[in-house]
Structures are given as C-alpha cells and as structure tokens.
Amino acid sequence: MAHFDETGVDVGGKTSWLHAASTPSLTYYAAHQKRGRDAIDEIGVLPKFQGTAVHDGLTSYWQYRDCEHALCNAHHLRELTFVEEEFGQAWAKDLKGLLLEVKQAVETARSQGLAELSAEVKRGFEARYDAALEEGLKMNPPPEPTGKRGRPKRGKAGSLVDRLREHKGATLAFMEDFAVPFDNNQVERDIRMTKVRQKVSGCFRTTTGADRFCRIRGYISTLRKQGLPVLSALGKALTGNPPLPATT
Fold first, then answer.
1. Predicted confidence (pLDDT) per residue in 22-40, tens digit
2. What pLDDT score does 150 carry?
3. Read out DSSP for the chain?
4. What is the pTM assigned to this prediction?
C-alpha cells in the first residue's frame, strides 16, 4: 500500500511539480518540471509498484497496470457536497451519506476484530451506490452527439457521475479490503510541510535546491515515522555516516 500525490511548486520562477510517494513508515519526494506520466516514469516509483496505489484520480496514475488502484474519498465528499449545494441534486447527498455509512461500517467491523464485511452487507451498499449514480445520470444525461471530434463537455456534476461509475471498484476499495484507507490523507499530510516551506520561503531558486530539499525533507519525514532521532541522524549525516531507516 502506498499513497501518491503531487503539488505545484515554483522553481526558478517557473511552475514545477513536487511529487510524493508515502506509506506510514516511508516518505519520498521528487521535484520535476512536469506533472504527468513523463515525470512519474522518470521518478521511477509508481512504474515499479505492484501493491495498491491510493491517489486522487489524476489521469496519469491510471496508466500503470501492474498495481491496484484506490481513490481518495475525501475528494469525492467535497465534490459531492459541491454538487448538492450548488446544483441542488439529491443523488449527491445520498451518495455522500452512503460513503460515510460504509466508512463507519468498516470501522465498526474492524473494531470487532472482523476482517471483512459480510457479502450481503456489501451487496446492499453496492446496490445503493449504483442506484444513486443512476439518479445522477438521469439528472445529468450525456449530451447528444454533435459530430465533432473529442469528448463532449459534461460539466462538473456529469463528469463526477461518469467518474464514480467508471471507477466504482477503486472508490469502494476500502470496503473490499480493510487495509485500504478511505482517503489519501497519508500523503497529503506528508506534502503539507512542503507547502508550509513554500509559504515561508517562496520559490526554489534552482532545481538543485529543490532536489536537495526533497532529499533532506524525505529523510527527515521517514526518520520521524520510524521513531528515529532526527537531530542525531542529521549530525551523523554531516559527518558522512547517516543512519539508514528501514525500507521494508
């Protein structure tokens, strides 16, 4: 299980991207001029990953087929709230409530020492999921073909319906496997410090500076996750003898 995300950073006055991959015990950062597959391939973590990748649905992530995918439902809750409040569509409220209900059911089952929900309970949740999206599709029907090339615009509500229908398995992955989290908060927490650094110091002047920050910050984050003394480790690193955190 690993979490993936990216955020914009200013490097030398130009927009670049800070990519992050993390687990509860490891953090890796890399800065790159690009956001999509070229960057992800060059960084080299996700192309070799064979577990479950938790992410926010960036198109480039779906191109990696050697791993399973799970989507961040915190993002879905925010989008569903927007559709409910801005467009007054009841299906969005229903689906938001359902996702939170499934989350509570998983947490309750886990606290009782269970490894999974019963097949009957899961079928019930899936049926309600499908029904809510059918209502969403009725309220946001696909546009009539225009004969023009390219995919017709669906708007925010329609696009959300399409995405949740297409990626039902990744959305409900946390229900099928209790090891899969409900959201992508792990990596979002790990990225937060880099955003704080940007607010305080502004941009990175050079790519070298950005790369050095990523390496140092990833090392410190990993040390903290594994309960290792940060200041002592940094002191030893300066003398050429850095403690190496566990990588498995």
1. 999 999 999 999 999 999 9
2. 63
3. -EEEEEEEEEETTEEEEEEEEE-SS-EEEEEES--SHHHHHHH-SGGG--SEEEE---GGGGG--SSEEEE-HHHHHHHHHHHHHHH--HHHHHHHHHHHHHHHHHHHHHHTT-SS--HHHHHHHHHHHHHHHHHHHHHSPPPPP-S-SSPPP-HHHHHHHHHHHHTHHHHTHHHH-TTS-SS-HHHHHHHHHHHHHHHHH-SBSSHHHHHHHHHHHHHHHHHHHTT--HHHHHHHHHTT-PPPPP--
4. 0.92
